[in-house]
Specification:
- It contains 7 helices and 2 strands, in the order βαααααβαα.
- It is mostly helical.
- The protein has one domain: Up-down Bundle (Four Helix Bundle (Hemerythrin (Met), subunit A)).
- Strands 1-2 form a two-stranded parallel sheet.
- The protein is globular, with a radius of gyration of 19 Å.
Length: about 220
Amino acid sequence: MNENTPFGGDKKVGASILAKPEKAFINWAIPKIPSWTNSRMLTLMTLVWSAGIILTGYLASVESFGVLWIISVCIFLQWLTDSLDGSLGRHRNEGWVKWGYYMDHFLDYIFLCSILIAYSLILPDNFKYLLFFLLVVLGAFMVNSFLAFAATNTFRIVYLGIGPTEIRIVFIIINTLLAFFGKTYMAPALPWILGASIIGLMVVIYRTQKEIATLDIQTKNS
């Protein structure tokens, strides 16, 4: 991109499975947000939800798994503020486009780390290395998005119909199973979750490099 190229980071491409109902909710909710709330406040709330998740993981490790429902609440609230911040900024023409792009997606990574940190406090030691590898793989999806954006000026965070909203639902389901059944079913499922994530990443990388190679060929031939 050069200085004359319009910034594309605030215009995500691709639609996830739940994109339509999510968009309908956002359009309904934006006009109802109080005037004292702005998009930057909503973006920074991810820090609060992330701290709440880590604290809950600690409490679950020393007291009872019964508190794990708080993690699900934090995940839901993070979805809420993260879904509304950009749309609110555009609705009110606040102008924090590049700041929002940077902070929103950096804090998404912090939020992901907070969930895996909380689970690392709960799961047996011999399964914790799987959480590390899961963080590497899920982080690679983010790296892929940012590198592809730098090459194409097109920002995509939805792959194979799966986006951040669907991933949050998966985490809520996992958290619910942990709360009801403890570690019994969660720990053995981790290798399967990691394996599925690796396969998905390989498909995404193949498609992304193919798209960028096509752009190179088109540029060369033009």
